[in-house]
Amino acid sequence: MRSALITGAAARLGRAIARELHRDHRVIIHYRSSAAAAQQLVDELNAIRPGSAVALHSDLVSAADCARLAEQAAQQWGGVDVLVNNASAFFPTPVGSATEEHWDQLIGSNLKAPFFLSQALAQSLAQGSGCIVNMADIHAERPMPRHPIYCAAKAGLVMLTKSLALELAPQVRVNAVAPGAILWPEQQTVDDTSKAKVLERIPLARTGGAEDIARTVRFLVSDAPYISGQVIAVDGGRNLNI
Fold this sequence. Notes:
- The protein is of the alpha/beta class and 242 residues long.
- The chain is 45% helix and 15% strand.
- Helix 3 runs parallel beside helix 4.
- The longest helix has 28 residues.
- It is globular.
- Keywords: Oxidoreductase.
- Pfam families: adh_short_C2.
- Belongs to the short-chain dehydrogenases/reductases (SDR) family.
């Protein structure tokens, strides 16, 4: 059975992706601060299939952090076949108030960590003809007001996806998923008026669910052997009307 490492998998989209991939993979649940939630998910998955899930902690701040996580993950079951770079910081940084710390947090989690983790696992992924799925954003191409650093980081991740697809071919496929309105941000209060304005611009007239993202990731992992270097928007058509 193949093994998958999902970063930021203790909650929200990462949790849904871990559950979906667990259908036919052993899963490594990475977490930064949500130890209890990560262990709860591991217990849930191991109750379904014993010995099929573990949790690993890493701050993913430095290249050394990424290398350690990659080594620990590969040691679990003799290698990692699938890497899902899902962990992501997200908060506004309007021009005039952004700090270097904001830059380091947003670029670090959304671009730096995916690169160094992919690099650290490249050999293991190649041995198993594996794949990488990066979690991009529809705002990588069309900027979101008050979020210039986040959007720049996700734009970099899109190019990283395409670059790695070229660099790691033919042994490793690399793709990305770009969610639209799936889950409202945890760190920010979104009022009903703001939500309504977003929904008005979605052709399908509704938000998506975490399962929509999880199923797309699973498609790219398990059912897309001739797809690489692509970014799939899962947004109800939102990118057509930004």
